[in-house]
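Re: duplicated header lines in exported C-alpha cells

Our pipeline writes sequence and C-alpha cells for each protein into one text file. With two proteins the header for the second block appears twice in some exports. Here is an export where it did not happen, for reference. First protein block:
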Amino acid sequence: MAVNNGNVAEQAYAFINAIHDQATGETTLAPLNHEQFVSIAQKTLAAGYDKVTNAISTVLSRTMVSVRPYERKLPDLEATSQRWGGWMRKINFGDNDVEEDQGYKLVDGQSIDPFKVKKTPILETVYLGADSWQDHYSLPKDQLNTAFQSEQGLYDLVSGIAMHFNNQREQHLEEFARQTLGALMLGRKASETANGDSVVHLVTEYNGKTGGSYTLEDLMKPDMIRGFYQFVIGRIAGISRRMTLRSQLYQNKITGYKINRHTPRADQKVYLLADVMETIASQVETNTFNTEFLTIPDHESVDFWQSLDKPDELSGVPPMIDADGVLTAGTQTAMTDVFGIILDRDAAGYNVFFDEMEQPIYDPAGRYWNFFYAVRCQSQVDLTEKSVLLMLD
C-alpha cells in the first residue's frame, strides 16, 4: 500500500515491467498487487555487427526501418489535468432527513425558531501518492556510419529509434490504464458481500429467468446465443437506467453518510470483452436485419483485462476501503469469465502529472547522447462511485 502513504512518487518500474510482460504474452497470468500503484479515495490521510548496438549488420543493398506509430488503447480513462491533476481531495455531500412541517403546529403565544442550525454532512476523501518510472536510450554520434550508405539512412534509423521509444511509452501508459480498470473490477468483486448489487452474474441470472441450467459454453452456441444476448442487452440497459437515478445503488456505502449519487448516461462508460462481442457480432448481428435493436451503445471493446493469453481473467490484490471509508488491506482475488464493467466516469481514471523527455546528455569520450524519459502518474479508483461488474458465470 506504499502508493497511498502520501509520498510524492513511488518507484513503479517493477510493476510496469510485470504488467508489460503479461500484456504482451511474454509471461502468463500472474497475480498483481494493485495496492502498490492505485491511489484510492479514502476518508483519512494515511564483428559483422557494429560494436555499438551489437544488432545492425554492415551495409546491405537496402535498409528498411521497421517501426510505425502506436496509439494507446482505453484513451477515455485518461483525465485532463483540470479535472484530476488538482483533485487530490474530493468533497462529497450526504443527505439529511426532511423535517416535520412546522406550519401545522402554530400555537398562540409561541414562536417557531427559524434559526436552528442544520449542517450539511460533508465527507472529504483524498487521493494520496503517485507512481513514477523512467527509461532512456543512447544515440551514437558517428559509430553507426559504417552501417549506412547515406545520411538519410542514418536519419531513418534515428527517427525509427525515437518512434519505437514513443511506442513503448504509449503501451506502458495503456497498460497503466488497463490495470486501473482492473483494480476497480477486482475491488468490486472483493466487496461483493457488502455490495451485491454491484456484481452481476449473467449466466446465473439467465438460468433463473428461464429455469434452465445452461453453462456459458451452452449459451454461446448458435441456437442459444441470440436469446442470451437479448437478455444481456436488457440487463445492461436496466443497470444504465438505474444509474441515472439518485440513489446508493451500485456503490460502497460509508457509515454515517447518506451519499446518494446519480450518473447521467453521458457520464457512463461501458467496457466489454472483445472476444465475446465479436462472437455475438458474427453469430447474431450477421443474421439480423435491424441490428440497432441488438446493439449496446457507447461501449469500448477491450481485448484482454490483464493477460494476453487469458483475456477474460483477472488476478491481484485490489485496493479497498472499509465501511468507515478508511483504506484497508485487500485480499488476493482471482476472477474468470469477466465480461465487462459499466461505471461512472469518476469511478476510475488516471492522470499523467509529469511526462517529459529530458535534455540529452552528450558523452564526448564515447561520442553518444543519452536521452531520458520520465513519467509520474496517478491511478485513481473510487469505490463509492457507481460501477457494476458484469460476469459471465
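Second protein block, exported in the same file:
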Amino acid sequence: MQDPKCPFFHKPNPDVDPKKDFPDSSKCGGCATQHIEYELQLENKKKKLSDITGFNDIQVFSDDPWNYRNRMDMVFTRDGLGFREKGRWWKTVAVGECVISNSRLNELKREVEDFFGPEFDFFHVKERVGTLKYAVIRTPQNDSCISIVLNKESENLDKVVAEVKKFAEKTTANNVLITYIKAKSSQSIGEDYEIVKGTDMVHETICAKVLHYSPQGFFQNNSVMAEKMHEYTRQLLSDRRPNGGPDGEKLYAHLLDLYGGVGAFGIVNADLFHKVTSVEDFEACTVAAKENMKRNDIENMEAICMDAKRLKQVNLPEKNLYVITDPPRVGMHEETIIQLRKLKPKLIIYISCNVDQLAKDLPKFKDYKIKSAAVFDLFPQTNHMESVIELVPKIG
C-alpha cells in the first residue's frame, strides 16, 4: 500500500459500511486505487483478464499513471470544480489540481474557477434548482474545449448564458459550448447546445491520422495510451493479413470495423485492406467518420449508420474478412455475434472496456480461440482497463 497522491482520495475502509457511516466525508468519488502501488494495479488487471479468459500469456501496456486524462466532467460548487463524494451522489467535493488530469486540463479548470466565483447561481442536485451544473473540459493533443452545462429550466438561465459568453472571451480554450440539460437529468452531454467560441468539434492525432469528433460524443480519454492501443492493433492486423501470392488474397482482404465511432480504427488501418466498412449506430459519429475519411484521403472505406445487431443487412465478402469490434460497456448484441459466426472472419479483434461483459461474450465465439491478449491501462488509479483479445478460427 502507498499514500494516495490526491488529498481528496477516498481510501476504502473494510470495517465501515458506506451505507450507514461516512467517516471519510468530503472524499472524491473518482479514483479507486490510488492507495495501491502502480505495479500491483497492473498485476491485478492482468490477473483479472487472465482469470476471465483462461489465457496466461498476457501483455501489459502502460505509461504515466498520473496526469493522463484529457477529459473531465466536473461539478460546479461554491468552492470550485469538483466531483461527487464517494457513496453520496447528492454531495460534492471541490478539488484542487486533479492529479490524473493532464496539465492543460488543470489550467482550464483554474480558468473556469477564477471566472465563476461563489456569487454565481450553482445547481443543487437534491432541490433541482440553480443554473450552473457541470464543466466538461476536453484537452486532447493540440486542441481544447469547455462545455458549460446549464439547467435549461432555471429562472436565471439568460443571465448565466450572458456570463458564459463573457467567459468565452477570456478563456484560452479553443472552443466553448453551452449545453442545456433538464433539471432532473444527471447527463453532462446532450444534443441541445450552442457554440459560443470556435467550433463544436475537437481533434486528435492517432497514428498520423487527424480525427475530428464532437465534445458531446465519445473518444478515448488517454491520448498516449490510445495511440499505443492503435499501434498494437494495427500490428496484429498486419501480421495476420494475407501476405499476397498468385491468387491476390491480400488485395481483396476486407476489414469490418464494428461500433466504429468516428472511424478511427478503420481509417488508421485502411491502407492494409482492399476495402473497409465501418458500422456505427450514432448518426453524428457516422457523419464525423465520413468527414474524417475525406480529411485523411481514405477512398476505400464506407461508414454506415446502423445498429450492429442488423449486421446481416451489410454486404460483406464470404472470405478474407477481418473484424475489429469495439462495443460499449454492455457488450455485443446476441444477433451481432450470431452473424459474425456465420461470416467466419479470419480474424476477430475484440476490444473491451468492460472485462466482466467480455467474460460473457467470449464463450459465444465457440469456433474461435484466443491467439493473444493484452491489457492497455488507459485508466490508472481506477479498476477500469481496455482489453484487446485476438481471436482466430479453431482448426479441425
